């Protein structure tokens, strides 16, 4: 029997309420029904169409497509069927198939907002920006909100001239707003148009004077261009406008450093590093500058340690100490590196990598008592780590505790597997321990074994 789909509106409503279809989809389908978009269709068509809606609602998109293809065989010129096919293909991320179905729906029922929106969004997901732009332009007369889509598409496709012209048009119609100012700033940054970037930031300050980031960005642009006086003036204006701001110190500390106002620079850096309103990435940049400053001015090392402790606590990041230790280690400042590594291990006892770094540095710096004690404690936590036995043996040998060294090295050698270089290190330390105990024959035996292995390594 052939019937109008509108006869089945109560049935359709029941189906729509029985599974999760979005409000927008429900409006579109009811709109289609009310306008007789499906036309005169058979019972079999209706059954498959409703089955497709049901399967789409429970995210069985393949089954929905199967049901819709059955509808297509019955009604190949039905735009709603192709529209639904397009959506299901899009959900499966088969964008080419989705575009093909939606294009057909658009040809069968041209200039329908709901079809064009779906097609524009699918082009966007498929990175086909040119056709998406054409559709966005056609959608603007329906609703000015599509100008935002058009702006985004211009940006994605790097059509900056067209985007700036659109922003000018929107500013003239609607007045300046923060979103469009931010978009302009991104464009000018990407195109290295510094004068325009400065102007847009000044406009942003006038439009939204309560946004301190506009001041800060202006300071950074001036600084990057070497316009030091303008940058400092903008920073001072920012501090005057926001007297309780912590963010302003992201700009001020550099000026204080450059002008040799050391005390003010240190206070600004402290303010940044313990501030809750400044993001961790910005803090790390300041921290690097602080490290460089202390490297040149070691008398401020106490201030650095104090601030780092507060920083690590506020960010809940004990790993910061390890990063600082690595920084000093690369600079060859082993004492400093060891200090920060030890600060880091106190809140991170199961960090075997950090623990081994500390022990090796203690040996390197001749701190054998500390290395012997800490390696003993470490073996209680990590009894299967051969390097810890080796470190403890080296420390004991250097303390002339040869008996203890021989015992720990002999025990630890059993844990060395497929590491010939480490095996040689153990044997050489055992030779030292045996020699220290007056057992020259045993010492020679260990050295001979080490030499044989070394031959295979070379």
From TrEMBL:
Q: What is this protein called?
A: Tetratricopeptide repeat protein
| SUPFAM superfamilies for this protein | TPR-like
Q: Give the InterPro entries listed for this entry.
A: TPR-like_helical_dom_sf, TPR_rpt, Ycf3/AcsC/BcsC/TPR_MFPF
Its keywords, alphabetically, are: Repeat, Signal, TPR repeat
TPR repeat residue intervals:
79-112
PROSITE patterns, per database record: TPR (PS50005)
- Superkingdom assignment: Bacteria
Where is the signal peptide, in residue numbers? 1-23
The keyword Repeat appears for this protein: yes
Record PANTHER family: CELLULOSE SYNTHASE OPERON PROTEIN C (PTHR44943), TPR REPEAT-CONTAINING PROTEIN MJ0798 (PTHR44943:SF4)
UniProt organism field:
Antarcticibacterium arcticum
Q: Does the keyword Signal apply?
A: yes
């Amino acid at each position: 029997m052939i019937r109008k789909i509108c006869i089945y509106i109560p049935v359709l409503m029941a189906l729509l309420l029985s599974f999760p279809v979005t409000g927008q989809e429900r409006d579109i389908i009811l709109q289609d029904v009310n306008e007789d978009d499906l036309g005169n269709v058979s019972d079999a068509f209706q059954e498959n169409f409703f089955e497709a809606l049901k399967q789409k609602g429970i995210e069985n998109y393949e089954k929905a497509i199967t049901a819709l293809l059955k509808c297509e065989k019955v009604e190949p010129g039905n735009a709603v069927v192709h529209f639904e096919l397009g959506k299901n293909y899009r959900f499966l991320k088969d964008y080419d198939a989705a575009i093909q179905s939606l294009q057909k729906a658009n040809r069968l029922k041209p200039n329908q907002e709901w079809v064009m929106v779906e097609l524009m969004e699918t082009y966007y997901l498929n990175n086909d920006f040119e056709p998406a732009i054409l559709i966005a332009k056609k959608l603007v007369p329906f609703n000015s909100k599509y100008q935002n889509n058009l702006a985004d598409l211009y940006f994605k496709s790097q059509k900056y001239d067209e985007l700036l012209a659109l922003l000018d048009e929107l500013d003239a119609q609607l007045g300046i707003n923060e979103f469009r100012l931010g978009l302009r700033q991104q464009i000018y940054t990407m195109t290295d148009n510094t004068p325009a970037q400065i102007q847009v930031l000044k406009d942003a300050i006038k439009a939204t004077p309560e946004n301190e980031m506009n001041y800060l960005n202006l300071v950074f642009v001036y600084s990057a261009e070497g316009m030091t006086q303008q940058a400092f003036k903008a920073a001072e204006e920012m501090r005057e406008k926001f007297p309780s701001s912590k963010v302003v110190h992201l700009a001020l500390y550099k000026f204080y450093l450059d002008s040799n106002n050391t005390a003010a620079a240190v206070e600004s850096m402290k303010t940044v590093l313990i501030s809750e309103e400044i993001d961790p990435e910005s803090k790390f940049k300041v921290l690097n500058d602080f490290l460089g400053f202390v490297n040149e001015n070691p008398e401020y090392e106490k201030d650095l340690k104090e601030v780092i402790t507060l920083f690590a606590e506020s960010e809940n990041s004990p790993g910061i100490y390890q990063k600082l230790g690595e920084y000093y280690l690369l600079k060859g400042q082993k004492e400093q590196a060891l200090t920060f590594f030890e600060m880091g291990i106190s809140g991170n006892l199961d960090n075997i990598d950090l623990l081994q770094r500390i022990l090796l540095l203690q040996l390197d710096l001749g701190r054998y008592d500390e290395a012997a004690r800490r390696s003993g404690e470490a073996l209680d936590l990590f009894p299967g780590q051969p390097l810890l036995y080796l470190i403890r043996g080296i420390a004991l040998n250097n303390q002339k505790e040869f008996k203890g060294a021989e015992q720990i090295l002999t025990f630890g050698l059993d844990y060395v597997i497929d590491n010939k270089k480490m095996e040689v290190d153990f044997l050489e330390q055992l030779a030292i321990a045996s020699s220290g105990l007056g057992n020259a024959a045993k010492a020679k035996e260990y050295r001979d074994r080490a030499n044989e292995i070394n031959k295979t390594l070379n």
